[in-house]
Amino acid sequence: MLTASYRKYILNFKRPAGTSRGVLRTKETWFIVLEENDKFGIGECGILRGLSADDRPDYEDKLAWACENVHWGLANLYPKLMEFPSIQMGLETAFRSLEGKHPFSIFESDFSRGNGSIPINGLIWMGDAAYMKQQIAEKLEEGFNCLKLKIGAIDFASELDLLARIRDEFSEREIELRVDANGAFEPQEALEKLKRLSQFQIHSIEQPIKPGQWHEMAGLCEQSPIPIALDEELIGVFNSEEKTKLMATIKPQFIILKPSFIGGFQGTDDWISQTALLDVAWWVTSALESNVGLNAISQYTFTKNSKLPQGLGTGSLYTNNIPSPLKVHNGRITYDTNLAWEFKI
Description:
By secondary structure, the protein is α/β, with parallel strands linked by helices. The protein is built from ten helices and 13 strands.
């Protein structure tokens, strides 16, 4: 008989992954565990407070409801959880986990067999100039050739100075630079800031202005000297018709896909199908999941054969992450089959 339960887990950051808007020290996540015929499957439901569409007071009630009705099967539960994309993700992963060769085989491929790797960007968190310089030095020493800098926390001139220092030492061919503004620019100032950033051969900028300003964002995508990637803009857009309308209106150069925020792998596939209509490129990013969620997202991403660096390097942020075979080396994430998972149900 198929049964389901869930448990809450608090992840503790090694150091503040901070912004001027507040400092993250812990992150909540939930695990759904399915059990049937002496087998178990596990999926992670990860939300970020203040950002996820399903950051709602009834979140845990909906999670309990999903577990109570797990006998309905994924195909029936998934559409009833449209406004809870992280629960969709957790259930989808748990069912695939239960059906896999072992609980952490979610998408079987060369990656999950230990014979493949995925290029990833090195993430530089927002903070004061000294903190950001320290992170940049660490990532370069670790062998990353694609850096993503979160900007908007310190004054713009200091951020430009940091980028100039990188470009003084490394050319565009040596280091790919991505920046993520997290909606920090005002629409009336955004184009000028994008022009000033463009002198540093920036690969792309994520979400220069706050989401929900479709026509302003469309204007930026048309005029910007830097390709624009939509990120938060995708959160809370649940049906295919609205996705089509958003993409046709804004016409971005890239979109960023966070499965926990957009309905798991089915939701991610839906967005990828939208990009094909307009020749828009994409990459996948984790959303501070534990290694359980990161593993599922990495395995999924490998099957998509994207050549772009992905945003999958967040597993080392925690002091109490679930020990796993996932490893980051020379700017790539791998699955080391010589290492074991340490997860107890």
